[in-house]
Design a protein that fits this description.
alpha+beta, Methane Monooxygenase Hydroxylase, Chain G, domain 1, 2 domains, 7-stranded antiparallel sheet, 3-stranded antiparallel sheet, 14 helices, 15 strands, 35% helix
């Protein structure tokens, strides 16, 4: 912590101000530059009276979505699927109610058009969830690939199911064995076994709704059921430094080092694939790779939700989690950032907080 105090003074001040204002109870932050860790610290509490540590398992929510993109990239690299494959080629029952033309690429770029599938209850089992999403109709007047609208969870379950059918292992097991373990993300999970849940016990940090000025525990997300279910769009968790390790791994792959993907595959998935489209969910233009949100600064860094601060380069790729977290890599400087706050204060306060944190990190490191 003392090292971070000197290295990231603006960043730490913003986080401490958030503690005082009741936006969050605690936060974890990890920053590295060209593969060298510069900061790995936690402030505040995991829950009232229990200090948050850097080893605690925090919930990444949508910041974990790119993990599923990389699982798909591995199938692509093995020749098991093509990005222009229809989803129905791998999941025949998906071709219901107008969805037969939706491709894998449409899922990865949020241009599929079945966002009503996001309303499936989050406590349903895997098979029932897949069945209900397959029964979801295409949105009226939506031509897949021509319109864009962020899918919170539905498309990510379908991507996970494609991986499961191609590989044969349960999706959470696949992610653990093929992504987390090779990248030495030893305490990261996307649906952990029940024995792991009991092993971690107090190290599983809950998430709170702080929108009304008090702490309201979101019970399901840190319960045994919530932690052991695999939900590809929202349920990855671990110490936030391990999300940073994920992005360090991607930068290393892009630079030609051997790892979980070939360099050209990593560059393909993290480079612009959907450009200049108005997003019907976020209500502004935003660009994506395959499963990654790209720097939105050319559309206005203070206007677009879930960006990476005022100073992120156009090459920056990553993803953020609803009102809580962010993970990204900026290849221009070799910068990796991952952080999570355990309070969800509402969209406006969070967007202000997120922009301030990400901007301050660049300024603290003289990268502005």
């Amino acid at each position: 912590m003392s090292e971070a105090l000197g290295l990231l003074p603006r960043t730490l001040s913003i986080l401490e101000q958030g503690l005082q204002e009741g936006l969050h109870l605690g936060a974890q932050v990890y920053v590295s530059l060209r593969g060298k860790p510069l900061a790995d610290f936690a402030i505040g509490d995991s829950k009232p009276g229990l200090a948050l540590t850097t080893a605690d398992l925090t919930l990444w929510l949508s910041s974990g979505k790119p993990i599923t993109a990389i699982a798909v990239a591995q199938q692509f690299e093995k020749g098991r699927l093509a990005l222009d494959d229809t989803v129905a080629r791998h999941i025949p029952e998906f071709a219901q109610k107008g969805k037969q033309a939706i491709t894998v690429a449409h899922l990865l770029t949020h241009t599929g058009g079945f966002r009503t599938g996001d309303k499936v209850p989050e406590d349903l089992g895997w098979d029932e969830t897949i069945s209900r999403i397959c029964e979801t109709p295409l949105e009226p007047a939506w031509v897949p690939g021509e319109k864009a609208g962020y899918h919170i969870s539905s498309s990510w379950f379908i991507l996970g199911e494609i991986v499961r059918r191609l590989d044969g292992r349960p999706y959470g097991q696949y992610v653990r064995e093929e992504i987390f373990e090779p990248l030495e993300m030893r305490d990261s999970w996307l649906g952990m076994p029940a024995e792991a849940y009991r092993h971690y016990a107090e190290r599983i940090a809950p998430m709170f709704n702080t929108e009304k000025g008090d702490l309201k525990l979101i019970q399901f997300w840190s319960s045994e059921q919530g932690c052991t279910m695999a939900r590809p769009g929202s349920n990855a968790r671990g110490p936030i430094r391990e999300l940073g390790r994920f992005y360090e791994g991607l930068l290393a792959i892009r630079d030609g080092e051997t790892s979980i993907l070939q360099p050209e595959t990593a560059r393909l998935f993290t480079s612009p694939q959907r450009v200049g489209k108005f997003d019907q969910t976020f209500r502004h233009n935003m660009d994506t790779g395959y499963g990654f949100i790209l720097s939105p600064n050319r559309y206005g860094p203070d206007l677009v939700s879930y960006g990476y601060g005022q100073h992120a380069s156009d090459e920056t790729f990553g993803h953020s989690g609803s009102q809580s977290s962010s993970g990204f890599a900026d290849p221009k400087d070799g910068l990796v950032v991952s952080w999570v706050c355990n309070g969800m204060p509402g969209e406006r306060p969070h967007q202000k907080r997120a922009r301030a944190i990400n901007t301050a990190i660049y300024e603290d490191l003289n990268l502005a």
